[in-house]
Design brief:
Layout: H1 14-31, E1 33-37, H2 38-54, H3 60-70, H4 73-86, E2 95-102, E3 109-115, H5 132-154, H6 169-181
Antiparallel strand pairs: 1-3, 2-3
């Protein structure tokens, strides 16, 4: 029984599975995109994303920790060099899985797994959207000076040669009576 077994064993013994995932992770880091079965891609995502997160902090300890998983110097150099510089501001989600059609030989579902920041077709140059709460606060600040200017305009002195006409209640009542008479 497999109670409590959370990850996919991929029909392999532990040593074979670890070696296969390490090789696939090195290939992914080197080529930025690989084609594999969907089950292996999902297992690889769980395996490689913590390693990419560790590469953000370039210390001897993190390099040795990642090397204990990958065991290839070229992949470590690439990961801590180019890849970590490109994903420095990303909080997670470093890989993307794109499903493909089934394989002809055994009808296995295939997929691409790729590093997100290296696919130019899906990346946009839009600036990051700011949070709504901050944007509303800025709008209120922008509106406040306009209101103050309007108050200043109302307090400006009125030219004395132009008579000021104020509509009183009597004038308003007279206009109401004219409308009732039909004039």
């Amino acid at each position: 029984m497999r109670h409590g077994k959370k990850f996919n064993h991929l029909s392999r013994k532990a040593a074979h599975r670890k070696a296969m995932l390490a090789n696939m992770a090195c290939s992914l880091i080197e080529h930025k995109r690989i084609k594999t079965t969907l089950a292996k891609a999902k297992a690889l995502r769980v395996y490689v994303e913590p390693l990419i997160s560790k590469s953000k902090v370039d210390t001897t300890h993190s390099r040795r920790t990642v090397f204990s998983y990958l065991k290839q110097k070229e992949a470590i150099t690439e990961l801590f060099g180019n890849v970590s510089a490109k994903i420095a501001d990303r909080p997670g989600g470093y890989t993307r899985i794109l499903k493909l059609s089934n394989r002809l030989g055994d009808n296995a579902q295939m997929a691409f797994i790729e590093l997100v920041d290296y696919n130019e077709e899906y990346t946009t140059d839009k600036p990051k959207r700011k949070k709504a709460r901050r944007a509303k606060a800025k709008k209120v600040e922008a509106v406040a000076p306009a209101v103050e200017e309007a108050v200043v305009v109302e307090d400006a002195p009125v030219a004395e040669d132009a008579p000021v006409v104020e509509e009183t209640k009597e004038v308003a009542d007279n206009s109401d009576k004219k409308e009732e008479k039909g004039e």
